[in-house]
Amino acid sequence: MEDDELVTTGSKSEDEKLDSSSSEAEDLQESLELKSSEVSSLPPIGLDHFITEPVGTARNLLVADHEIMFSESMMEKWGSQRQDLILDRLSECDKLKLINLVKIQNDGTVEVDLEKSGPIASELLELQSFEESTISGSLVSESTKAAPCLEIVMLVVGTRGDVQPFLAIAKKLQEYGHRVRLATHADFETFVKSAGVDFYPLHGDPRALAGYMARNKGLLPSGPTEVSIQRKQLKAIIDSLLPACIAPDLETGVPFRAEAIIANPTAYGHAHVAEALGVPLHIFFTMPWTPTYEFPHPLARVPQSAGYWLSYIIVDLLIWWGIGGIINDFRKRKLKLAPIAYFSMFHGSISHLPTSYMWSPHVVPKPNDWGPSVDVVGYCFLNLESKYQPQEDFVQWIKNGPKPFYFGFGSMPLDDPQRTTNVIVEALKDTGQRGIIDRGWGNLGNLAEVPNYVFLLEECPHDWLFPQCSALFNPLAFLKRKSLVDVLS
Questions:
Q1: pLDDT, tens only, 88-104
Q2: How far is CA 217 from CA 65, 158, 210, 293, 330, in A?
């Protein structure tokens, strides 16, 4: 594909599948050209004409005669009021002052200190007043008609824990009559298909991403050696987003063209593909990513509560400075769109997109300063229990004693899996307890001889497994043998 060549870390067969559809995807990309017959008859469109835009400029989705239409945007109502544009013109000196606001920690989180902020922080905080002025009344329902059945693509980047709640949503959307394609890493192909949902592979290695996040406790590189690794992964993922939205099914050849996109924030490029295709976008996530004054960004450490809202802008900006070149190359080369700046339309952020957070409002209520386009919708559980058939030796082991303890890291890699395994086994021995060690991606359970009070587990649905256990241990319990013994005793 010349300069469009993708960077992959999957198996050869997976790459061949993707390459086999590359010419078809490139043909479909021609429909994105502004001079193409499909688009030339339509009025000029951009991101601000769809639900992929800041809340204050978002279109309200309407349905009439089975066609998707959009109401007048708040940006059109407010005219040329754009106080955030001043931040596109930051001088190099001001950018250095902004960098001085933050300190990237060894674990990849960001410390934001307002005492060093000066006028730059004040300019950033002006975005909040602008945001509040444009949010008011921007998403009032103008139609109660049911939406037509759509072709929906879900773009999900991350580990199995990231994919699973989206799979639950996909199944529910299918029940409503929509055709749903879940696009994620090839590692999860069997998992997605086993739930009866169409699958399309995204590039990028989820194990490498999990290792990166384990080393950095988030998305920001803690050292220069991490930068090139993460950029390579993200470029591969971003380049594969467009085919995921428009390419035919890789196995059946059935055509597909997304009429709506659902994505998690780490599928960078989602808003840009939505802009190019002219389709609505909705964000779902399990961590707060929308600015609020009530708590800081999960990747930020903020000593002053006044800096909570600002921490979201800072983290978004740092991420944008890291991938902005990749995004603009993607826009120009793949999407045939003009390059953009971060602050001019908040393209690097999800803070103005319709967003649903998947946690219980009883655990963390929706902040008062989140507008009507953001909601806390509760957990999205996928029921896998009904189809699971456990191995007979596992069933007998569970029956032959008291309920065991469960130990597992899921998709989290470990720096020293052997030491962690030894801590667990010795603690169980010292306390006379039984335990299930879920090997996961951390490579736990490498034992020359497995004692009868330990069962090594490869994979098992949690909704079936956890009721069989007396207690569950997360990674924090594995730090020291003594502390684990105290808990087990």
A1: 555 666 666 666 666 66
A2: 48, 14, 10, 23, 27
